[in-house]
Amino acid sequence: MVHLFPGQGDFSLSALLRAARTHRPVRDALAGVLRQADGVAAEFGIRPLGPWLLGSSPPSGRELAAAAPGTPQLALFCSSLAVSRALGAVGLEPERALGVSFGEIAALTAAGVFDVAGGARIACLLARSLARCDGSMLLLQTGEEQTLVLMRAACTRGLALACVNDPGETVVSGASPAVAALERLARRRGVTATRLRLPFLSHHPSLTDEAHCFAASIRRVPAAPARFPVHSAVLGRAYGKEDDVHRGLADCLVRPARVPEVLRQAWTSPVTLLLEAGTGQALTRSARSTLPAAAPMAHAPLAEPGFPWRHPGRLRLRAASPAEVPR
């Protein structure tokens, strides 16, 4: 069992709130995580999320984005951790985790490296760092090789390959004018290009100073040994006992994330389930595209209306004999 923790580009507040209303394990897990995180929220001037998200008048995604700096990041951290805990509560505990960019914070917290307050503090400190990282990020529906060709053809400086999501999807980061030029070129060449709705850039080598400052700011957050392996799309493998996890998180600001490589490492068996610990299905799509044989084993619980929260054993049966178990 592998839990997949996505980055900031695929967060749906409406999916989270719908799942919390519909599925008791999600609501209970979310309430518990938010209770522990809200003490940290106050330190950063963030409105307590528990009463807000689970109250009678929850915010819209736009209202959440317009709230105090760090609010969306803290909500994303809490939601990913809550989905992982909800899955565990119904018997779908992770044996491994895979974190992509911001998702590494929740993945490491799920593995016990950080407690909830520590993970929440790191999420808020990263949000503070990102506020100083002006730029844009562009999602391209093409592979790494063609993306590099487009970047060279754009004849503009400052672009960097930020993420390889799967064999046919990448993300590029850079200064907004450079990203806009690449976007125009991609569309002229028939490549679907979508600007990510994130008011900053990340995974860019120009952010070295910000990465050093962020690493220093989170040093005071204690780290414990992981209870299970946590694969990092930036590190390119699972964290080891000798790895500096604080530095690893800071490296997400400056180094690219390569999802296919760590998916192949984490999917250790044809019957290994891959469950997205997030509100969307970006990593589920990446898994299905990267590992065609794993497609029946990859699920996005909050994005699949028919996910068997009440009968999770059905997933294990499909994993044991996917061709024989009826859907």
From TrEMBL:
<keyword id="KW-0808">Transferase</keyword>
<dbReference type="InterPro" id="IPR016036">
    <property type="entry name" value="Malonyl_transacylase_ACP-bd"/>
</dbReference>
<dbReference type="InterPro" id="IPR014043">
    <property type="entry name" value="Acyl_transferase_dom"/>
</dbReference>
<dbReference type="GO" id="GO:0006633">
    <property type="term" value="P:fatty acid biosynthetic process"/>
</dbReference>
<dbReference type="Pfam" id="PF00698">
    <property type="entry name" value="Acyl_transf_1"/>
</dbReference>
<dbReference type="InterPro" id="IPR050858">
    <property type="entry name" value="Mal-CoA-ACP_Trans/PKS_FabD"/>
</dbReference>
<protein>
    <submittedName>
        <fullName>Acyltransferase domain-containing protein</fullName>
    </submittedName>
</protein>
<dbReference type="GO" id="GO:0005829">
    <property type="term" value="C:cytosol"/>
</dbReference>
<dbReference type="InterPro" id="IPR001227">
    <property type="entry name" value="Ac_transferase_dom_sf"/>
</dbReference>
<feature type="domain" description="Malonyl-CoA:ACP transacylase (MAT)">
    <location>
        <begin position="4"/>
        <end position="304"/>
    </location>
</feature>
<dbReference type="GO" id="GO:0004314">
    <property type="term" value="F:[acyl-carrier-protein] S-malonyltransferase activity"/>
</dbReference>
<keyword id="KW-0012">Acyltransferase</keyword>
<dbReference type="InterPro" id="IPR016035">
    <property type="entry name" value="Acyl_Trfase/lysoPLipase"/>
</dbReference>
